[in-house]
Automatic annotation (TrEMBL), chain A:
It is a multi-pass membrane protein. This is Solute:Na+ symporter, SSS family. InterPro entries: Na/Glc_symporter_sf, Na/solute_symporter, Sodium:Solute_Symporter. Keywords: Membrane, Transmembrane, Transmembrane helix, Transport. It is found in: Membrane. GO terms for cellular component: plasma membrane. The keyword Transmembrane helix applies. It comes from the Bacteria. Belongs to the sodium:solute symporter (SSF) (TC 2.A.21) family. The keyword Protease does not apply.
UniProtKB/TrEMBL annotation, chain B:
It comes from Terribacillus halophilus. PANTHER family: BSL5891 PROTEIN (PTHR40034). InterPro entries: DUF3311. It comes from the Bacteria. Keywords: Membrane, Transmembrane, Transmembrane helix. This is DUF3311 domain-containing protein. The chain crosses the membrane at residues 34-56.
Amino acid sequence: MNIALIIILGFLLLAVFLGIRATKGKEMDLEQWTVGGRGFSSIFVFLLMAGEIYTTFSFLGGSGWAYGKGAPALYVLMYICLSYVTSYWLLPAIWRYAKEHRLVSQSDFFVKKYNSPYLGVLVALVGVIGMIPVIVVQLKGLGIIVSQASYGAVSMQAAVWMGAIALTIYVMLSGVHGSAWTAFIKDIVMVVVICFLGIYLPLHYYGGFQPMFEAVHAANPGLLKFPDEGNSVTWVISTVLLLVLGFYMWPQVFSSTYTAKNERVFRKNAIISPLYTLMLVFVVFVGTAAILTVPGLEGEDVDLALLRLSLDTFDPWVVGVIGGAGLLTALVPGSLLMMSTSTLLAKNIFHVFAPKSSEQTVGKLARLLVPFVALVAVYFTLHGGTTLSNIILMGYSLMTQLAPSLLFSLWKGNFINKYGAGAGIIAGLATVAYITTSHMTLADLFTFLPATWNDVNTGIIALVINCIVMIAVSLATRKSQRAAAA
Amino acid sequence: MKRLYFLTILPFIGMLGFLPFVNRVEPFVLSMPFVMFWIVLWAVLSSVILAVMYKLDPRNKEDEEK
């Protein structure tokens, strides 16, 4: 065992210690446990949401794309920034309704708005299916970090299993309060490490930022702007719009808005949050610095760029600190996601079909489901070979399908009913599944469109079909309801 | 919906709408390729726009008194 692994293990033990300590002397009802009694101030809500949004993906996936694809990696910064812009009016609206009706989960929101527990089940299912890929990303990240920091002593497979076991134990012992505490430390360590790497590496290897970009530009012209085909300008615009729609649809993000003590919290946080996304610029710097210094990584190996370059540059103890920071960015969101997934399965799915079960049974079941969720995630981690960025994009195209019925429900004159909302979501999911398996592009459907339209994110098609079905079914069932009444 | 909230469209127009016209490497600004600089610039302007909205929004004063 080398010094890097020992330091990473130290970070893990610290996280577990904080997690267990945070739960001491707290016996809480559901509203306290999940939404902190709706009493969180600006800073806490900010940290909680940042804890969920900046994951190992921002660390390894962002630098991986900057290394492998160049400028298109900037899409991460763009969609997070623009999502924060919409939060100014979207989150207060969600919060107000949730407080009025004392809601605790995202699917409660749909149940109440559309007055249908079964729509809640559907929304919970979408949430579970969408969150599994994000858990996979965290496990993959953990695996990469541990296997790289061991200098090859631990295989990727063994590292993924170890990561999954550590995550499961952590979640079962600590609960949401542990995550909130670790989230605080995680954000500090992460910002410091990323800024350090983003500044040090370009200076060390190229003598400055501009010399670095000039060298990369000379070696590979075209990498530093959006290409004409593939991840082109059309791709980035459509993808960013889609991701912004999906951003607040994630169950764990959605319900963390409930923790705020008033609406002003969101408007205040909206101002500083776009500046916080600038941290991702440093991630892009790291990926760019790796292009000429650790050449030859291809396919899913681009996600290794940041760690490979760190291994080449620093002493093992620095690698240990970087790995430890990476571990925390996987552990915090990973634990929140595992908790949300198992809570959704127990409360919003199981409980609907077994309404007689007591709240304690549901709570117990939620905990028991954690290892099961971990196993499913390990299976997909070891069997799906694609980059972190692609997995995240897939999860987003699923979650975005909840956006139309949610946005309509916030509108006073909403004419969408539960049948329309349900049918729209199902139609959207079916389209995503079909497009993903058949690798269809927009040009296959509309052959008359100009070539620039080829790269439009196919998630848009699913979204359009979703909207059409939702509106059509709502209008049709409304008529038949009226006819039945007459 | 309040008229003030339409200001949130500006960052979308700036960051996404102008992208086809600024998708170039040179000139380098603040040591960054031009398209990267443009996106960073709009992230900063997003903050500025939201801060202005916050100042102008009477709702924030209501909450303060509560």
